[in-house]
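User: I'm preparing a small set of examples for a lab meeting where we compare how different chains pack in three dimensions. I only have the primary sequence for this one, and I'd like the structure in token form so I can line it up with the others. Please keep the answer compact; I'll paste it straight into my notes.
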Amino acid sequence: MATVDYVPRGRGFEVRLTVEGLEIIARGAGMDEAPELSGDPELIDNVALVALLLGYAANELAFRRSRSTEKRANHRKAADDERRDAVALARLVVRMENEQVDEWCSGCFARTARRHVRGADRPARTFLCLACGTPTVYCAVPGCSHHAVIRPRRPVTLAYCAEHRHEIPGFAKLRATIPTLDEYSDFLTHEVRNAARITNVAGGSIAAAAVIAPVAFFAAPALGAALGSSVLGGSLTGAAATSHGLAMLGGGAVASGGLGMAGGTAVVTATGTAIGGALGAVTASAYFGADKSFRIERVRDGGGTPVVFATGFLTEGLAGWGDWQRLVDTRYPDSAVYQVHWGAKELGDLAGLVGAAGAMAAVQTLLVQGAKRGSKAFGLPGVGWVLGAKSIAANPWTVAKTKAGMTGALLAELLARTVEGPYVLMGHSLGARVMVTAAQALGTRSGPPRLESMHLLGAALGRKGDWRTLQNAVTGAVWNYWSADDNVLRWLYTLAEAGQQAAGHKGFGSGLPRVKDRNVTRLVGGHTEYVGTVTLAG
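Assistant: Understood. Below is the structure token output for the 538-residue chain.
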């Protein structure tokens, strides 16, 4: 018999799970405080169980607080699922035997010890990983000795390991290095066929806890925030959202989209231990598979500090090396140069919307009218409504912005694994967003910085934020070139981001000594003019 009891405690909670005389208790003071754990070590030491229990508590708390019917329904479903999974997993924990095997685990992506669960032999012998606590079975591919993740309350006849689900390129590659940035393809090439796609068998959702928790338990508030703002996550913040994220987001989820698109970027940017390791490889593999246009091209050889650049939207005719060479050569004439190609479909869709006849004038009118009557002007028809409707996850701006974050996370992983470097990063528009995401991810890792400096032109990202990780990512400076005459950022970005101002239109204004704003309004009269007119600082 196993039970879960939830009790409100002021603005927080207490949740207690009991099973066969053992118990685990989690107490949280609120959304922004890390929960305290107590109880029997047999349960507390199972990371997946803890993550599921905290995910349940976070959703239960949010369900009781939310006034939105839709959010309450989402929280209720997520809480019920996590509670049932926690109960089922607890029943497995108390039945662990001494029989032990050492194999690769598709939960924590490490070669770990696992123990057999008494009485759990059908449809396949079930084990629990001693590192991450995830229930696993042998991979269904004949001859494969790796372990696949299963959901404790929904046994499957066939389950496949992370290699054969194409969640990772290969267990042996998880800590591989890359000689130069353009030699990334070998690292991301899958070693075996995708057996899961062939048979269309879904893996267990409990892999979520196992992927993240062993690597960065309670260390990814940004992950929780990303999940908290998603359709399934609702409105969680702080530690409660983090615990929910640990219980919800896994390699499988990342690889199949959904929460992975919103949360996976945050995983990499929030947890430095992910970069260059197993979790980083999982995320990189998933994002690489999600963008068929992604590639890194070496456009020039050289002996100086290698330069990496990426373009954004509205850059027709300004997206090639021939257009960027003048700019790069103002500061790095002898450097090897790489171009990151990304998001062709998303950037094309966004450019098509923004480039429609009269779009800029229409958006400007919307904002002026909205300001006069004190509204956001998001309910008005036309292009402004399409960009401003943030509740529509598939609007062109949200999709392109998300893809920029995914690309930045992927680039960070590749940069962390290369032997060459450090690098100089450059980006225009959403390409600058790609580079900032990559730099922030790299800024959280241990060891010397992988970046020498950065140059951001017309950056399509908010000017307000904690930019310390950005500063920590470089040995030199982060240069932000902004123009008050950049009307794309002035009107479209402000509308799409609910009134926020872009760093490429107003500057960061951070006060940090190595995050430097450079006003180029005198040279730049529009969003597409940076590359052809700016001279790099430094």
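A couple of notes for your slides: Confidence is low (pLDDT under 50) at residues 199-273, 357-393. The first strand starts at residue 2 and ends at 9.

User: Perfect, thanks.
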